[in-house]
Amino acid sequence: MSTPVLERTAETSVPLLDVLAERWSPRAFDPTSPIDEAKLTAALEAARWAPSASNTQPWRFIVARRGTDLHATIDGALVGFNREWAGNAQVLVAAFAEETDADGNPRPWAQYDLGQAVAHLSVQAHADGLFTHQMGGVDREALRALPGVDERFTPVSVIALGELGDASALSEKLQERETAPRLRRPLDETIIASA
């Protein structure tokens, strides 16, 4: 299915790389097309090569393709209006931070590093023509019950990943969000101090 891409390029104060300015988080995912496995692997590989403190790589992912029981389970762990649209994504990725090492020592930077890995994943996916939408609205206890998750792994978010779908298939409320102007706080309000 070929869905026209909405013009969503950010109006930035200075020029950015196209892949950054054009990246956005849709809610309309194509509910029928399969995932391109090579593009999915590239996105996960980009996450693998993200920087981390002392190269600890304190991130873990559970990757669930649409049509599998695992996808349905992760979709069932979503809360709020995420339940209305995220199940259409070709892939749901549950993201975990490894907040302690194998010896029980804390890794206070783990969620920060996970965020970097997810950012790399989302930029690579966008560069390859896929879209991502990160969600914090999730039942974390349900994610803790997923296979392979041990006590070191803190569930943080779920990422919907796949090809863009038709926004007109969304509810009216979600269509409004899908097409609303992209806004960010001005840069001078983001920087607390600069010398």
Characterization of this structure:
31% of the residues lie in helices and 15% in strands. The protein has 195 residues and is an alpha+beta fold. It has a single domain (32-180), classed as NADH Oxidase (3-Layer(aba) Sandwich). The chain has a 4-stranded antiparallel β-sheet with strand order 1-2-4-3.
Average pLDDT works out at 93
DSSP strand count: 4
Overall CATH class? Alpha Beta
For the biggest sheet, the summary is: 4 strands, antiparallel
**Strand fraction:** 15-25%
CATH fold group: NADH Oxidase
Low-confidence residue ranges: none
Question: Looking at the structure, what is the overall shape?
Answer: globular
Class by helix and strand content? alpha+beta
Task: Briefly characterize the structure.
With 195 residues, this protein is of the alpha+beta class.
Record keyword descriptors for this entry:
alpha+beta, NADH Oxidase, four-stranded antiparallel sheet, 7 helices, 4 strands, globular
List the helices and strands and how they pair.
Blueprint: H1 18-21, H2 37-48, E1 59-65, H3 69-77, E2 91-98, H4 110-127, E3 131-135, H5 140-144, E4 153-162, H6 172-179, H7 187-190
